[in-house]
Amino acid sequence: MKSQFPFAIINVFSNSRINALGNPSAVILLDEKLQDEKLQSIATALHQPATTFLWKTDKENEFLIRWFAPDEEIGLCGHGAMAASAFLSDEFPENSKNGFKLIKDKTIIEAGVDSENTHFIILDNIKRSTIQNPPKGLEKALGQKIVEYYPTENKHIVLLENEESLAAMKPDFESLRKIDVFGYSVTAASSHHDDFVCRTLVPHVQQLEDHATGSTQAVLVDFWAKKLGKSELESRQLSPRGGYFNAIHHHDDFKLIAHSYYTIKGTFYLN
Length: 271
Description:
The protein has 271 residues and is of the alpha+beta class. It folds into two domains: 4-125 and 256-269, Diaminopimelate Epimerase, Chain A, domain 1 (Roll), CATH 3.10.310.10; 138-239, Diaminopimelate Epimerase, Chain A, domain 1, CATH 3.10.310.10. 20% of the residues lie in helices and 41% in strands. The protein is built from six helices and 16 strands. α2 (78-91) packs across α6 (214-228).
């Protein structure tokens, strides 16, 4: 196995117009799979919200993908997938017009160039249950009135009254850790020109609140598309760094489009 690999840190879901810095992911293109312990140790050392590992299959434009946070593996990382889309489009420009397939277990994510300055990924809509009462203690831990609550197969949907309530929310993470729910996609209708706003809370892991979250879009795009009767949606993530998203909703999946920019591009040296 080689000891030097193409490497970058890429910020995705950014938008300079609203000063949204987006979410950074390290990306490393390997020549073969490493042991899980080694992947985790690299991600821990790089200490990015996600480190994305890629390696080619024997099929053209097809790559296996894994994502690791500093403390554990990530099942679905939308911003890591978007970073991979930008990275592969730059590494293999001659193949970018045909797009790429990113494969993790049974999940296949299509990715590639959307326009001169944007890239895309196609994600499945994450299914949600019917409306339910929120868990005991959740409303107090968020400090805001909950209008609707929907469990999902990923982060549960929490609908608040308005954008101002979402922006003012100061989560009590110690209290949230006492509730047996991995994470929350907290959302409200936008008070501006776009369609909705969101925040992503993950109280049981190191990060606590994510910067700009593709998996939250996979939860919310279908929810808001049906609530608003629209197929093309714009949204913002109200984290300290900020995130901006364009999505095109389909029946079972959606196309997520994003701007990105590099912080670092070079070579990763594996010891």
